[in-house]
Amino acid sequence: MALSIEPSLEDALAAGWTIPTSWYVDPEVFERERTAIFERSWQYVGKADELARPGDYLTARVGRVPVVVVRNGSGDLAGFVNVCLHRCAEVVRGAGHRSTLQCHYHAWTYGLDGRLLSAPRSEREACFSTSDYRLEPIQVGQYGPFVFVNLSSAAPSLEDSLGELPDRLADGGLDLDGLVPVERSEWEVAANWKVVVENYDECYHCPVAHPSFTRLMEVDPDRYALEAGSWWSRASTPLRSWPEGRAVELPYDPTGEVTVGQFGYLWPNFTLVQNPGPPNAMAFYFVPLAPERTLVVSEYLFAPGTPPGLVRDMIEFNLAVGAEDQALVESVQRGAASGRVGKGRLLLDSERLIQHFHALVAGALAESDQA
Ligand code: FES
Ligand SMILES: [Fe+2]
Question: 190-228: buried (b, 16+ CB within 10 Å) or exposed (e) per residue?
């Protein structure tokens, strides 16, 4: 993929420079990213428990495109572009349960397979056949409890995109099938989505900016392991060991079968965290709202029977780290928006997952230039 990047940019990225700072503020880059990145990659839309029964559906927006995912009559997940073939209203809104997809504007009614079943008054038209109309199907995939869609029929499958990531996370103790959803939260940050991903991709800042995290997990570069595949990356680190008898205030009691922290990433904007302690997972999904605004959606999952007080403590720990990160990324955004530093300089030993991310961003934009 990196071969199509402009040679001077490719060289700069290889040498440890970042992508141009202007890419974090430029509305034109933001628009190109919608098409070249978000409308061609796997995008998280919801959890499988929201789509348990035939007829359950949920809606989302991917890039510029409204989408709907349903559990169809065969029990399979199916996805469609949620734009009515009559006059382009979104066919269905929100989420819930229904036997057909009926448009809220003039009641054109589609089956759960996307085919048009009926259109009021169409029998009064000389040349109208419902069989000529079908909502555009899109790819749907599932990883554990997480449901994704991809608007590009040419994109690699979700399984291929995830590559070795599920196995690597499982090696580190993550068992998604043994977890149940507990809570969801959302918040907005005043930063470009790429700044948010980059902050997730390195723990160089942890000893400086995350005191509770640093008391809980190892942040030394010799213990904090980094690895990457084509479309994914992962960091992992063990629970920190303290000298016997030393009193250290931890953010929660990490006693449990999970002894490593894991930080998985799927291109371009889905992440999965496992904290040491009882079996748990926290998904963080970064939705670009505007060049300088990003919505963070988080889903918390725990093993059934985890004590509620411990669940609360672990969620509060993540929210505290998230608040610390929000201050950091918003500071970066203000600095980037100043236009006074054209590109940043990575320290690759600690920040090579950002380099990996930047190669994917630059490759996707270059490919769209050449398309
Ligand atoms: S726009 Fe959907 S029925 Fe008219
Ligand atoms: Fe952080």
Answer: bbbbbbbbbbbbbbbebeebbebbbebbbbeeeebebeb
Residue 1: pLDDT band (50, 70, 90) is very low
- 302 with 365, same domain? yes
73: number of Cβ within 10 Å: 13
Question: CATH no. for residue 87?
Answer: 2.102.10.10
Query: Which of 102, 108, 133 for mutating ligand 1's site (highest number of atoms within 8 Å of CB)?
Result: 108
pTM value is 0.95
Task: From 82, 85, 87, 101, give the residue whose CB has the most ligand 1 atoms within 8 Å, as the site to mutate.
Answer: 87
The dihedral through the CA atoms of 221, 224, 230, 231 has a sign that is negative
The predicted-structure confidence for 295-334, as pLDDT tens digits, reads as follows: 999 999 999 999 999 999 999 999 999 999 999 999 999 9
Distance CA 61, CA 204 (A): 34
**What is the tens place of the pLDDT at every residue in 172-230?**
999 999 999 999 999 999 999 999 999 999 999 999 999 999 999 999 999 999 999 99
Do 319 and 183 share a structural domain?
Answer: yes
The parent domain of residue 260 ranges over 2-41+157-370
CA of 82 to the centre of ligand 1 (A): 11
| Strand 146-150 to 43-47 pairing | antiparallel
How many whole angstroms from 326 Cα to the centroid of ligand 1? Answer: 41
Query: Rounded to whole angstroms, how far apart are CA atoms 338 and 104?
Result: 45
- Of all protein residues, the one whose alpha carbon is nearest to atom 3 of ligand 1 is 106
For residue 88, the ligand 1 atom closest to its alpha carbon is: 1
Q: How far apart are CA 181 and CA 171, in angstroms?
A: 22
3-class DSSP assignment, residue 278:
coil
Flag the least confident range among 231-240, 298-307, 347-356, 361-370. Answer: 361-370
Q: Is the CB of 87 under 6 A from ligand 1?
A: yes
Q: How many domains does the chain have?
A: 2
Two structure tokens written together for 165:
């990531």
- Please give the Cα distance from 242 to 8 (Å, whole number): 47
196's tokens: 């948010």
Report the atom number in ligand 1 closest to the C-alpha of 119: 3
